[in-house]
Amino acid sequence: MSESRLRIVVAKPGLDGHDRGAKVVARALRDAGMEVVYTGLHQTPEQIVEAAIQEDADGVGLSVLSGAHMTLFAKVMELLKAKDASDITVFGGGIIPDDDIPQLQALGVAKVFTPGATTTEIVEWVNANVEAH
Prior knowledge:
- By secondary structure, the chain is an alpha/beta fold.
- The chain has five helices and five strands; from the N terminus they run E-H-E-H-E-H-E-H-E-H.
- It has helices at residues 20-31, 45-54, 69-82, 101-107, 119-129; strands spanning 7-11, 35-38, 59-64, 89-94, 111-113.
- Helix 1 (20-31) packs across helix 5 and helix 2 packs across helix 3.
């Protein structure tokens, strides 16, 4: 039996209207053999968590450039826990100050990629740290 492919939801929470980075990451993950669902712009944490559960996602990648990362990541983590879906690995990136990364990790965010991270680095991390359900 072949190894199952990772299923990753890539999401743009909040009011941020810039999604080029999210699309580049989604394409890189897809090109690496993963099944990728891109939710589009202006998603609420509730919509993202619902999509992750409906898609039976192994991981959720959040892209936040708006500065609302602390609130948005926290809400996604809270909702995943409430829906008994804490086994979905959450990672993210965007314009996130280094000082905020430990706080995000304390919330349960597995990895935060900052500007300059390569798609190769992201793909390798996802392959090594996200488990197929």
